[in-house]
Design brief:
Layout (H helix, E strand, L loop, with lengths): L2 E5 L6 E5 L4 E11 L4 E7 L11 E5 L8 E5 L8 E7 L7 H4 L7 E5 L16 E7 L4 H6 L3 H6 L2 E8 L6 H12 L4 H4 L3 E7 L10 H6 L2 H6 L9 E7 L1 H13 L13 E5 L4
Parallel strand pairs: 9-10, 9-12, 10-11, 12-13
Antiparallel strand pairs: 1-2, 3-4, 3-8, 4-7, 5-6, 5-8
Bound molecules: adenosine-2'-5'-diphosphate (A2P).
Length: 275
């Protein structure tokens, strides 16, 4: 029987459970903790696993006969030979209370079929792509900003990331810096990729919810772009449910229509999954 091994970091026992059918068992390559609420990890990528940048997959741990699975956006681009994920840590979260303790070499379970609406295919052609994120909602965009197809389809790419404090912005800052220097993507981003950050619970250069920045027009002034326009702009939104609802209302007010894989249009939304 195929079994997956997970080190129980609390008592350093090795636990073994059968791998459920239709699930990959992959190895943790590295883990990076950003704050006491956020961490990122990379795992080996199954050779047969294909996905479109922006999609998510169900992730679990081999720590029970019937493991808990939660949806995680691939944060790595489709061309990367490993898979990267960016996660919240919830003290009593059914999955993340355990997932936050993983170490290199541990086993991660992954269901085989990726899916999701934050994909380029769900948008009609446009000139400017806004990716609006809060917290771990930046994950699917971490994939898309590193995908050459994003730059083939859009002239200008704007990634906004709003978090409670400055430390929570670090993952995105590192991502953008690395993307700009990447031998494959760096050149494509030149003069075309803008990164806007704001904090809501700590003083910083730019404070406030993204909704306030959009409503006041300050976002557009800062970026040097015109207000949302359905003839040129496409928007992807990912983060908390409340943020999605409020930003969705703002883009709809500007005349943008919601798209899907089946019927592409002007904007798409997906909640950042937690727990
Ligand atoms: P705030 O600090 O004012 O709640 P979280 O870490 O709780 O998921 O939140 C991530 C970010 O999303 C925070 O900066 C938070 O601001 C912001 N946020 C929460 N709700 C909304 C909303 N309805 N509209 C815009 N931003 C929001």
């Amino acid at each position: 029987m195929n079994t997956a091994v997970l080190r129980d970091t609390e008592n350093s026992d090795r636990l073994e459970f059968p791998i459920p059918a239709g699930v990959y068992a992959e190895r943790v390559v590295s883990v990076k903790h950003y704050t006491d609420r956020l961490f990122a990890f990379r795992i080996t990528r199954p050779r047969s696993f294909r996905f479109r940048s922006g999609e998510f997959v169900m992730i679990g741990l081999p720590n029970a006969e019937k493991p808990v699975f939660r949806a995680y956006s691939m944060a790595s681009p489709a061309w990367d030979e490993e898979l990267e994920f960016f996660s919240i840590k919830v003290a009593d979260g059914p999955l993340t209370q355990h997932l936050q303790k993983i170490k290199a070499g541990d086993t991660i379970l992954m269901r085989q079929k990726p899916t999701g609406t934050l994909v380029l295919d769900a948008l009609t052609p446009g000139r400017r792509l806004y990716m609006i994120s809060t917290g771990t909602g930046i994950a699917p965009f971490a994939s898309l900003v590193r995908d050459p197809e994003t730059y083939e389809k859009f002239d200008q790419i704007v990634l906004t990331h709003t978090c409670r404090d400055l430390a929570e912005l670090t993952y995105g800052e590192e991502l953008i810096a690395a993307t700009r220097e990447d031998p494959l993507i760096g050149e494509l981003t030149e003069g075309r990729l803008q990164h806007f950050t704001s904090t809501t619970r700590e003083a910083s250069g730019s404070q406030g919810r993204i909704t306030s920045w959009i409503e006041s027009g300050a976002l557009f002034k800062t970026l040097g772009t015109p207000p949302f326009d359905p003839t040129t702009d496409r928007v992807m939104i990912c983060g908390s449910i409340a943020m999605i609802k409020d930003v969705k209302a703002l883009v709809e007010k500007a005349g943008l229509k919601e798209g899907s894989n089946a019927v592409p249009a002007d904007f798409v939304v997906e909640r950042a999954f937690v727990g």
